[in-house]
Amino acid sequence: MTTxxxxxxxxxxxxxxxxxxxxxxxxxxxxxxxxxxxxxxxxAMCDYEHFFNRFFEGKFRPDKQEAxxxxxxxxxxxxxxxxxxxxxxxxxxxxxxxxEIPLTKIEAMGSGKMxxxxxxxxxxxxxEAVEIAAGRDVYTGGKINEYVIKxxxxxxxxxxxxxxxxxxxxCIEDAYSPAQSKNMVNSILKGMIK
Length: 194
Known about the structure:
With 194 residues, this protein is an alpha+beta fold. The chain has 4 helices and 13 strands. It has helices at 48-57, 113-121, 126-136, 178-193; strands spanning 3-7, 10-13, 17-19, 22-25, 31-34, 37-43, 74-79, 85-90, 96-101, 107-110, 145-148, 164-168, 171-175. A hairpin with a 5-residue loop joins strand 8 and strand 9 (96-101). The longest helix has 16 residues, at 178-193.
């Protein structure tokens, strides 16, 4: 498989290709440019064309399977012409789905996804996260590439009341703002009174 990570306007991805447990290439470019759209691909390379065809035909959430019953084993982080990012995949029911990635969030996919997400949660960049994933995931490796998305400098970070992540000696601790704590306590109390 592979590891693709997104954080702070940058997409990082490895260059290793495997066939089962055999490494077949350490210099594969997993960024594909089609019709002014960039696809950062992971999954079975033999399914990429099928994936691209389904994408450009707009076959998202079809009512029935393809005539040949095939399901592409490929997923991608896609940068659209306007600079927006999307996760696009085909599920086990042969349904293609997509979900927009808020540019102020983090995202990862592929076999090293969990390692990359944990690394970014601990403050690492997308590229550093893929490097860390390559150290643990046997299907991630080779050269780690990085791409800066379009228009990221125009993005204003969203202000959210969410968990505040604090780092103590390399460990993550969740803390909550005073307003959140009060809201949580009130929600719990309301639930107990019913």
